[in-house]
Amino acid sequence: MFQYDPDKHYPKETESRVVIRFQDCDPLRHLNNAKYFDYFFNAREDQVPKLYGLEIIDLIRVYKAAWVVYNHNISYVKPAMVGEWVRIMSRILWHNHNTILVEYYMTDDSKTQLKTVLWSTMRYVTLGEGKSTDHSGAVMEFLKATSLNLDLADLDPKNRVKQLKLEIEKGK
Q: Which Pfam families match (predicted)?
């Protein structure tokens, strides 16, 4: 279970290095569009426990609630190719009392070329009724410690892709 420590630095971004598998590609050797979701979600699922000591299933068991995706916005910038090593980063851009916006993005292995950006908006809902509920306890502590909590008024997916491309070209 996540235990907030005010003296600890919590990274705001996760990062994984993965290879694009043959079975996940189309005949043109590009990563299949639907498979990007698997790569993004698996990378975050692998990294959150390492960085934060948190298994999401523990939060689900304790609070009897989970995040449910209600919107995806994906921008395919450059294709990921079979056999290519890529970097996958993820971070919580924003949260409020019952919703989070998670950003995932993929670059080439050297982090010089943006490949894809995904925004997933998720609502926190009870397992029993499937109704929206507020973040509380360790869930809220985790969000406060790890979310960038950017102003959504200043964000839109198209401009975010441009911003990430510029950051990557400049080497962050």
A: 4HBT_2
